[in-house]
């Protein structure tokens, strides 16, 4: 008799096990299978993820993912130097862009964080700064309920980023960033993606 799949995962029509959130929407499934949890080691990529996690606050990730092409077009492909130079006219342009999330505080935060990203180059850069909060171990969740929403490391990262001038970087948002860029592996133990980042071998 075949073994029962771990609780929390859904076996798709391709025979692969994923968490429920990555099983229904084709866009979310592709993101989960190819990108989520894989290491991000470039500044632009890290700044983009940090920005999108902030925009996601209070919304579903699927909403942000569908809007990501529009976000990239609106924010100069998340080039930190270009975004850091945005002025009032750019803020109004973004507030009138129906393709993105039109939240003035979050738009201002993305601009502020671009400047902070550029300034952080003097201290080794955003990528090394964020990866500096990698914990000694990673969760091993079997169900979605087992997945943490923040950690001591994400709390410390949030405080450290705020000290460097970043905003919209709370501990829950930063934990989501750590998950997205491979700093922790919160793939469910029964998922076909568990351990694929190369950071955490199990």
Automatic annotation (TrEMBL):
<dbReference type="GO" id="GO:0006284">
    <property type="term" value="P:base-excision repair"/>
</dbReference>
<dbReference type="GO" id="GO:0046872">
    <property type="term" value="F:metal ion binding"/>
</dbReference>
<keyword id="KW-0479">Metal-binding</keyword>
<dbReference type="InterPro" id="IPR052891">
    <property type="entry name" value="DNA-3mA_glycosylase"/>
</dbReference>
<dbReference type="GO" id="GO:0008725">
    <property type="term" value="F:DNA-3-methyladenine glycosylase activity"/>
</dbReference>
<dbReference type="Pfam" id="PF03352">
    <property type="entry name" value="Adenine_glyco"/>
</dbReference>
<protein>
    <submittedName>
        <fullName>DNA-3-methyladenine glycosylase I</fullName>
    </submittedName>
</protein>
<dbReference type="InterPro" id="IPR011257">
    <property type="entry name" value="DNA_glycosylase"/>
</dbReference>
<feature type="binding site">
    <location>
        <position position="187"/>
    </location>
    <ligand>
        <name>Zn(2+)</name>
    </ligand>
</feature>
<dbReference type="InterPro" id="IPR005019">
    <property type="entry name" value="Adenine_glyco"/>
</dbReference>
<keyword id="KW-0862">Zinc</keyword>
């Amino acid at each position: 008799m075949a073994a029962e799949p771990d609780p929390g995962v859904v076996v798709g029509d391709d025979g692969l096990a994923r968490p429920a959130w990555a099983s229904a929407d084709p866009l979310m499934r592709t993101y989960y299978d190819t990108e989520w949890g894989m290491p991000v080691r470039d500044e632009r990529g890290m700044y983009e993820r940090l920005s999108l996690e902030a925009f996601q606050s209070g919304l579903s990730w699927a909403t942000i993912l569908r809007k990501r092409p529009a976000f990239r077009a609106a924010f100069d492909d998340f080039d930190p130097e270009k975004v850091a130079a945005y002025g009032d006219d750019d803020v109004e342009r973004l507030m009138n862009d129906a393709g993105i999330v039109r939240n003035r505080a979050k738009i201002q935060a993305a601009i502020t964080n671009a400047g902070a990203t550029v300034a952080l180059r003097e201290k080794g850069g955003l990528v090394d700064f964020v990866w500096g909060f990698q914990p000694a171990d990673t969760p091993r969740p079997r169900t979605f309920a087992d997945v943490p929403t923040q950690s001591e490391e994400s709390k410390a990262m949030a405080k450290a980023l705020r000290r460097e001038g970043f905003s919209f970087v709370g501990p829950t948002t930063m934990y989501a960033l750590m998950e997205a860029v491979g700093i922790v592996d919160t793939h469910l133990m029964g998922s076909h993606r568990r351990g694929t980042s190369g950071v955490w071998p199990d």
